[in-house]
Design a protein that fits this description.
The complex is a heterodimer.
Chain A (H helix, E strand, L loop, with lengths): L3 E16 L5 E17 L3 E5 L6 H8 L7 E6 L2 E2 L5 H10 E4 L13 H11 L8 H11 L16 H13 L5 E5 L7 H18 L2 E6 L2 H7 L2 E6 L2 E7 H6 L4 H9 L5 H6 L40 E2 L5 E2 L13
Parallel strand pairs in A: 3-8, 3-9, 6-7, 7-8
Antiparallel strand pairs in A: 1-2, 1-4, 4-5, 9-10, 10-12, 11-12
Helix pairs in contact in A: 3-4, 5-6
Chain B lengths: L3 E12 L2 E13 L4 E5 L6 H9 L7 E10 L2 E2 L5 H7 L4 E4 L13 H12 L4 H14 L5 H4 L9 H13 L5 E5 L7 H18 L2 E6 L2 H7 L2 E6 L2 E7 H6 L4 H8 L49 E4 L2 E3 L2 H4 L8
The chains are: A alpha/beta, B alpha/beta.
């Protein structure tokens, strides 16, 4: 077993659609995650990007077993997560933690910071009731909060501070991997930078693997080692973060990169932009073949025929497009 | 003469917990056909500025303490309801941030889009519908003839924002106020909407006030940009100037904390502390508490926005006196 801390093999998460009330029958399914294969190494930051509805949050929830996977395997530390007993699941939760997008909704408003941070410690028996205080103080210091705030409630904190509490809660069990679902998108630029720096520092110091989900490519490029681009439940491109974003291969990644506004009027006014037409299609009834072909500027007849697999596209890179070699080179 | 000239606008909210100075002495002008960007973090007063101009501040608790907003000879802050009605929705219109909640879910799209026409113009329903249809096509809604009769819930977020734009532009306004129109949208859809605003602006020759917290959006769209903080304007300059030569420490700090502009892996610059509580009086510079260059002089008096080169003004006493260099 190499140093892969987490492996996903052909993970699928479908949500059934039912019709009828008494004679309930399944009439279809939303294919939120549709065959994702990925691995995350110890201490690695993997960025996961895509538009809303592409399945990145569902993938995060599936990894955490918050929604059941329809198919495939999630392997944490060499042990499959699916089919685990309650006790086994409790043990794996210790290694696997999550930070949610909205720090206003993810903290219990009726629990003080102390109670929020002490709960996982006590549930998992990390420490006894006697030394809980010392552990909580230490956690608060790690995320840059003064321990004297421990008896305050979430509403007494700002968004950035709340996100620090959420991070402290995720760190309480000394996990090996954290899944962060849009941890900074609800925050202002100046606060966002503080949280990004904190996450980067924690990953470095604790050799923590991080799956960082965001829709902001410049943030992802900054923090991630590798990046995976999702479209309609599938990964369409995977590789080292800076390379994928500076020299995207897949047409969807190209369009996504060209759509990010650059905070530099010189570049912003001269560069060529690929503006995609329309919205992403519905995951209930995805288009045949490559799901991106109806919006793809390079689509040809062949693209409708089969779902393109991820194929090697340069060192450490993969992309799911049958026309990779026929497309013009991209660069910044 | 500028199309809109706002002078010393102060909008305060009188609440049980004190007086919140959401907008505290803001002055700016918008020329015909110009695009003015207002950037700032949440709570900086950028939306309240727009709401004040449009007369959408709930009073109480809000109160416009002072100032004027002259639009073509009419003070929008003091005019009668009748005068305001003749301008609002006709010559000045607004797009809101959240397309999910700013359309009436009980009304068909067609009814909502033609409403401003029926109110402001002497026009039959049939003609109005024809204009609405043309407008829906102009904003890029496919099958407009059929979809104009849909309800808002049948549209996606990007499509609803297009409907909002169609509704705002159908009376061919001279000034469009767009309050974070793309914040709730995906980047690919954002690119579509920004392109749309740009091309419609060119066609109609209207002025745009574009409120956003995304400096990237400002860079591509705006002629002039003003940076707001705690209800005050910190710096205003042309977009090129502001990105190449930001003078105020806050504008500089803001730029240095954007990941996209920094080398990968390098620790991001962070502004220490939190935005100030605007319910507390601030005798000096609002940014002084978080500013790394702050000195005694900063807390002495509210710094005045001073023009240092044509079109470029800032409100920092220490930069003005030359105590901090341009590349500090």
């Amino acid at each position: 077993m190499p140093d892969n801390i987490l492996e996903l093999r052909d993970v699928r998460t479908y949500f059934p659609i039912h019709r009828g009330f008494l004679l309930k029958r399944q009439t279809g399914a939303v294919r939120a995650v549709d065959g994702v294969t990925l691995s995350v190494r110890q201490g690695e930051v993997l960025g996961l990007v895509g538009e809303s509805g592409c399945g990145k949050s569902t993938l995060a929830r599936t990894i955490l077993q918050l929604v059941p996977a329809t198919g495939g395997a999630i392997i944490l530390n060499g042990r499959p997560l699916g089919g685990a007993t309650r006790a086994e699941m409790l043990a794996s939760r210790r290694d696997l933690q999550m930070i949610f997008q909205d720090p206003y909704a993810s903290l219990n408003p009726r629990m003080t910071v102390h109670a929020t941070l002490a709960e996982p410690l006590l549930v998992h028996g990390i420490c006894g009731p006697r030394d809980v205080q010392a552990h909580v103080d230490e956690l608060m210091r790690v995320v840059g909060l003064a321990p004297r705030f421990a008896q305050k409630y979430p509403h007494e904190f700002s968004g950035g501070q709340r996100q620090r509490i959420a991070i402290a809660r995720a760190l309480a069990l000394r996990p090996k991997i954290i899944v962060a679902d849009e941890p900074v998108s609800a925050l202002d630029v100046s606060i966002q930078a503080q949280i990004l720096n904190l996450l980067a520092k924690l990953c470095r110091e604790m050799n923590l693997a991080l799956i960082f989900i965001a829709h902001d490519l410049s943030v992802v490029r900054h923090v991630s080692d590798r990046v995976a681009v999702m479209y309609l439940g599938k990964i369409v491109e995977l590789g080292p973060a800076a390379e994928v974003i500076d020299r995207p291969r897949h047409p969807y990644t190209r369009a996504l990169v060209s759509a990010i506004p650059v905070a530099d009027p010189g570049i912003e006014r001269t560069r060529k932009r690929i503006v995609l037409a329309g919205d992403p299609p519905s995951p209930i009834n995805p288009p045949p073949g490559c799901a991106f072909h109806p919006r793809c500027p390079y689509a040809v007849e062949r693209c409708r025929e089969a779902v393109p697999p991820l194929v090697p596209a340069g060192p450490g890179r993969e992309a799911a497009c049958i026309r990779l070699d026929e497309l013009p080179a991209s660069g910044t | 003469m500028p199309l809109l000239s706002v002078t010393d606008l102060r909008t305060h909210f009188h609440t049980r917990n004190g007086v919140y100075r959401a907008v505290d002495g803001v002055s700016f002008t918008v020329e015909r056909g110009e695009t003015l960007g207002i950037v700032g973090e949440s709570g900086s007063g950028k939306s309240v500025t727009c709401y004040s101009i449009m007369g959408l501040i709930p009073m109480p608790p809000g109160r416009i303490e002072s100032g004027s907003a002259m639009f073509d000879g009419v003070d929008l802050l003091r005019c009668s309801a009748k005068e305001a009605r003749a301008i609002r929705g006709k010559r000045v219109s607004m797009i809101f941030q959240d397309p999910m909640t700013s359309l009436n879910p009980y009304m068909r799209i067609s009814e909502q889009v033609i409403e401003p026409l029926l109110i402001h113009e002497d026009i039959t329903r049939k003609e109005a519908l024809a204009r609405a249809l043309a407008m829906m096509e102009a904003v890029g809604i496919n099958d407009a003839a059929q979809r104009i009769h849909y309800y808002p819930h049948e549209f996606s977020g990007g499509m609803r924002q297009r409907v909002m734009i169609a509704m705002a532009l159908i009376t061919r306004p001279e000034l469009l106020i767009a309050d974070e129109p793309t914040t709730a949208l995906d980047v690919t859809v954002q690119a579509q909407i920004l392109d749309l605003i740009r091309s419609l602006q060119r066609e109609l020759g209207m002025a745009v006030i574009f409120v956003t917290h995304d400096l990237g959006v400002v860079a591509g769209l705006c002629d002039q940009v003003q940076v707001m903080y705690a209800g005050r304007i910190m710096e205003t300059a042309s977009a090129e100037e502001l990105f190449k030569r930001p003078l105020h420490p806050y504008s500089r700090a803001l730029q240095r904390s954007i990941p996209g502009l920094q080398p990968k892996g390098r620790e991001l610059y962070t502004i220490q502390g939190l935005p100030p509580d605007v319910s507390k009086p601030m005798p000096g510079c609002a940014f002084a508490a978080r500013c790394e260059y702050a000195a005694e002089t900063c807390n002495a008096a509210v710094p005045v926005l001073t023009e240092v080169s044509p079109g470029h003004s800032h409100a920092c006493v220490r930069v003005l006196s030359g105590e901090i260099g341009a590349d500090a």
